Every structure is written in C-alpha cells, then in structure tokens.
C-alpha cells in the first residue's frame, strides 16, 4: 500500500494519531481536516469524520479522492455478539446498514433496494493483518465478524438480540457500513477495527462514557501494529 487512509469518528479515536504520525502536511475539505504524514515508514492520511453515516461517507470519498489505496477505520462499538465483553475487539469481515429498512416493500432488513449487494465485504488481506495485530497485542480477545451500522446509539437489550439473531452482527456502531459502501463503490480495500466500549444494552450510555477512552486506545494500538506489516 502506497498511501493508507485512516479514519476515526471521534476525537478520542484519532488523537493518538496526532501524537504518533510525523506530519508532512494537511488540507481541509467539507469541514474535515485531513492530516498527511508518515507512520512506521508508511505514507498515511488520517482524519476525524464526525459521527454517523453521512459524515463517514463524505469523509471516505474525500480520502479516496486524495489518493489513498486502502482505508482503515479505528474506533469503538457496542457489542452485539453475546460472548463479547467490554474491551474485546471486532475486526470486520463485512459491514451492513441495520437501519436501512424497506421491509414494507418486501425487501430484507438492511437491503438497499434495487442493489445486488448490501453487505459490504472487507479486504481479506487487511482482515488478516488486523487479526494478527489483535492476537499479538490482545491474545484471545478479538473476533472477526459482521459490523452493523446505523444512525442510532443502540441501548436496548431486545434490539441487540434481534441484531444478533436476524442480522448476525458482532457489534454495532454508526459509521462502518457507510465507509464500507463507499470503498466498495470505488473498489478500494478497507477494514474496520472496533473495540467494545459497551454492550448496547440499558447500561450502554454509562459504559460508553467510562470505557470509550480505553477502547479507543486499544483500537489505535491495533492500527499502529498493523502499519508495521502493511
Ligand atoms: N458506539 C459505541 N457504542 C455504541 C452503541 N451502543 N451504539 C452505536 N454506536 C456505538
């Protein structure tokens, strides 16, 4: 990879990149600042997308327009897979928009009407590099799985159970599937790395506030380790 794009949604998720990347330049577009530099001898461009699918989509397209040849996402998520605990990590095998819902028209939940694909697959090579990095840093604490994205902070046990049973999700967050769709539309490889800040249940808001900083640090460390092998 010649130029690696890295996105985080929140300040906690990218402030460590500000510390560790040797900066060579920056530019701004659509209200987003893109920082260019070097990390472990690799050219990177990183940015804070802001929260939600629209922010993530615009940010990803602009990164691709800036010439990156892959996109990594670092951040936190709510656990959906029952075996996952706070601090565990999900590496995306694919991403799907759980709030895309045209079921009254006979489409499946998550299906984007008139489109063949609505589950966007991560690049197998990036999934492997990410999983290896997880095993090096946090042995036994990561899974590969489906990331469910929507413009909702999920904090309901029943909803989480449905997301697991009906959609087969491993975790839920608010950007991954938008980034994934834009990457697939442009034929650019991607992977999403999410550390669990909460279990998307009745305690999610409390846990999110308590664990987001540590979970963001974990995600960042994985990206940092990945860069050594890319
Ligand atoms: N990001 C972290 N926790 C989340 C949750 N419970 N729902 C959506 N996005 C999240």
TrEMBL record:
Gene Ontology cellular component list: cytosol
Pathway this chain belongs to: Amino-acid biosynthesis; L-methionine biosynthesis via salvage pathway; S-methyl-5-thio-alpha-D-ribose 1-phosphate from S-methyl-5'-thioadenosine (hydrolase route): step 1/2
Pfam families according to UniProt: PNP_UDP_1
Keyword Transcription assigned: no
UniProt xrefs under InterPro entries: MTA_SAH_Nsdase, Nucleoside_phosphorylase_d, Nucleoside_phosphorylase_sf
EC number of this enzyme: 3.2.2.9
UniProt GO MF annotations: adenosylhomocysteine nucleosidase activity; methylthioadenosine nucleosidase activity
Entry keywords, A to Z: Amino-acid biosynthesis, Hydrolase, Methionine biosynthesis
Keyword Glycoprotein applies: no
Stated name of the protein: adenosylhomocysteine nucleosidase
Protein species of origin: Paenibacillus montanisoli
